[in-house]
Amino acid sequence: MPDPTKIRILLADDHALVRRGVRLILDREPDLEVVAEAGDGAEAIEMARSHEVDLAVLDIAMPRLTGLQATRELAGLMPGLRILMLTMHDNEQYFFQALKAGACGYVLKSVADRDLVAACRAAMRDEPFLYPGAVTALIRNYLDRVRHGEETPDQILTPREEEVLKLVAEGRSSKEIAELLFISVKTVQRHRANLLQKLGLRDRLDLTRYAIRAGLVEP
């Protein structure tokens, strides 16, 4: 009988020796337990279906179905399952593909004894686990997108909407905002309505909280 207090793990790698080594790392932790093993991506999907598992640790390069393909399948089949990629490749392309496929972490085999346990626990807390090289890759990718003028998530508001949001959060009335920005009260109200709709918020209090989180006003 699986222990309900433990994180139940499916481990998939086409090298039995690697599986044995990884299993040793995981099973010596009191809160982790490998309950199923697979030798390729297709078998990993079968095992995930036939066993109660909380977390899948998948090698990226496997026969029949790769870890990336299996991740896509599993993310669709079992949205609650957390997935970690285990790989020999310190490779940005693989890393971004893994995140896109639905993995919540990326662990290098070369440092699995150091990182894997922390990555498993982070995954169960719904926190992404990134090795240091991946953090650098993410920052570089973000800066590239900014440099090429691609829209980033924080550019959801126009500069004018941001100005209105800041003033609303500071407690200004529509009349005061209109005077400060040299626009009509009607235009201010339209901007406010757009802000609420765009951000999925209800009222002035929600807008103020959002402005604080966005760093537009001091808490």
Structural description of this entry:
The longest helix is centred in the middle third of the chain and has 16 residues. The protein has a 6-stranded parallel beta sheet, sandwiched between helices. With 219 residues, it is an alpha/beta fold. The chain has 2 domains: 138 residues, Response regulator (Rossmann fold, 3-Layer(aba) Sandwich); 56 residues, Winged helix-like DNA-binding domain superfamily/Winged helix DNA-binding domain (Arc Repressor Mutant, subunit A), CATH 1.10.10. It is 53% helix and 14% strand. It is elongated, with a radius of gyration of 23 Å.
Number of spatially distinct domains: 2
Specify the CATH class of the largest domain: Alpha Beta
* Quaternary status: single chain
Structural class: alpha/beta
Q: Which overall shape is indicated by the principal axes computed on the Cα atoms?
A: elongated
Percent helix range: 40-55%
Keywords: DNA-binding, Phosphoprotein, Transcription, Transcription regulation
Pfam family, one: GerE
GO molecular function: DNA binding
GO biological process, one term: regulation of DNA-templated transcription
